[in-house]
Amino acid sequence: MRTSSTGDRGFTLVEMAVVVIIVAVLAGMIVPHFASWTGSSQLRESARGLLAAAAYAREFAATRRCCCRLVIAPGDQPCRLEYQKDPEHRPGEFEAMRDGVAVLPALSAPVRFGLVRIRPAEDGQQPQNHITFRPSGRSDAAIIQITDGRRTYSLVVLPSTGRASLVDGAVGELPDDRQDLDA
Predict the structure, then answer these.
(1) Whole-model pTM?
(2) Partner residues linked to 2 by β-bridges
């Protein structure tokens, strides 16, 4: 800091340039961390939305006494919930739910689906793109991975109870929560 002949104090150009350089270096170190934090929060929010939709489908099936399914859309299309409007007369027909919970927002880059494995509860059925929750509490076994390329969450649905849980990390094996009582 220099003092002029009149006694005024001020910063030199060199001192101001050093301060600007220090601020630029600190900003350069902080911005990438902030960008990864926002991407991570997008992934967490999408994974929790998927978990909430699965829990809602399970509860809807049990309370309304009809099958409900969570449809996993390919690519970046939004997932949706469907239900059997008339299970007695038209058991194979499903209709899209119209309320706010029924459609999840589409995944936005860099968040995307990873591994999607669904094993139907009923023998002989082919693998499908939806998890069916039944009024009895049973459901299809499922693993749905959601990832941003660096981090992965796995939605795991147990077939005997239809209960869904979110696991931090990749899960590859379909759950089999049946127990052999003879062993």
Answers:
(1) 0.72
(2) 10
